[in-house]
Amino acid sequence: MADEVPSLAESKLTALVVDDNFVNQTMHHKLLDRLGIKNDVVCNGQEAVDVHCSGRNYDLILMDMEMPILNGIQATKRLREMGIESKIAGVTTRANEGDKKEFMEAGLNDFQEKPLTISKLLSILHRLDFHVQT
Amino acid sequence: MQRQVALIKQSLFDQGYLDEQFIELEELQDDANPNFVEEVATLYFKDSARLISNIEQALERGSFDFNRLDNYMHQFKGSSTSIGASKVKTECTMFREYCRVGNAEGCLRTFKQLKKEHATLRKKLEQYFQASK
């Protein structure tokens, strides 16, 4: 499997991992690294907003839903209000349909259940039209 | 030695301590990060020890703040799911269910089992990583 993982390093994509869980931060950071996607990690929705206010921008944001201070739904709404057009994929453990709908309506482009895997991440990239060459 | 490592790993799966998510974790290990799995496991046990301590303190207070307990357990379940800690994840789910219905005794009973599964997993993974060196 390791040999078949495509690399998007040439595409120079960037991503932001937004998650309050240290294990998930490490996993998602490594998953993106594995695909050659440079990425930063923040711990909650407020930090995601702050990093954009500082002028940073990303092609893809992996947004957890339940986080302290500012959760994923609130952060997604705030980013869209700020005019951030990055692709945002909501990533969360099994959410009920109501929560998922609310999260999508906040401004997500895609939604995926945790835990993330390489194949789930590739699926996100495909659906969001990031060109993935194998 | 390789065979011993393979047997230890297989038993972790056969006994239900780990699920396929652990294999996903192993897929991320490469020459650039040859100890990635062990590093993530170490992070998990450090973080989960903190959560266990927080939960213990919350339970010792006597008055059950089910919201707070559920928040801690949500974190715990998330981490456990990410590394494939199947039995621990199951206990987290049960604990959250007891929180949802406000069953203090159920929470206490499940938490005791959770700590046991967590300790066993820790010991077995330590054996696995030691044998892998």
TrEMBL record, chain A:
Residues modified to 4-aspartylphosphate: D64
Highest taxon of the lineage: Eukaryota
Protein name: Response regulatory domain-containing protein
Pfam families in alphabetical order: Response_reg
Organism listed in the record: Brassica campestris (Field mustard)
Any single biological process term in GO: phosphorelay signal transduction system
CDD domains: REC_hyHK_CKI1_RcsC-like
KW Phosphoprotein (keyword) present: yes
Aminoacyl-tRNA synthetase listed as a keyword: no
Keyword tags: Phosphoprotein
Domain Response regulatory: 14-129
InterPro entries: CheY-like_superfamily, Sig_transdc_resp-reg_receiver, ST_Response_Regulator
UniProtKB/TrEMBL annotation, chain B:
Modified sites of kind Phosphohistidine: H74
Entries under PROSITE patterns matching the protein: HPT
Single GO molecular function: histidine phosphotransfer kinase activity
Keywords: Cytokinin signaling pathway, Phosphoprotein, Two-component regulatory system
Keyword Metal-binding set for record: no
Gene3D superfamilies cross-referenced by the UniProt entry: HPT domain
A cellular-component GO term for this protein: nucleus
Record-annotated HPt domain positions: 33-128
Pfam families given in the database record: Hpt
Compartment(s) of residence: Cytoplasm, Cytosol; Nucleus
InterPro entries per the UniProt record, alphabetical: AHP1-5/YPD1, HPT_dom_sf, Sig_transdc_His_kin_Hpt_dom
Main location: cytoplasm
GO biological process: cytokinin-activated signaling pathway; phosphorelay signal transduction system
SUPFAM superfamilies according to UniProt: Histidine-containing phosphotransfer domain, HPT domain (SSF47226)
Comment field on protein domains: Histidine-containing phosphotransfer domain (HPt) contains an active histidine that mediates the phosphotransfer.
Stored PANTHER family: HISTIDINE-CONTAINING PHOSPHOTRANSFER PROTEIN 4, PHOSPHORELAY INTERMEDIATE PROTEIN YPD1
Function: Functions as a two-component phosphorelay mediators between cytokinin sensor histidine kinases and response regulators (B-type ARRs). Plays an important role in propagating cytokinin signal transduction.
Name under which the protein is recorded: Histidine-containing phosphotransfer protein
Lineage: Eukaryota, Viridiplantae, Streptophyta, Embryophyta, Tracheophyta
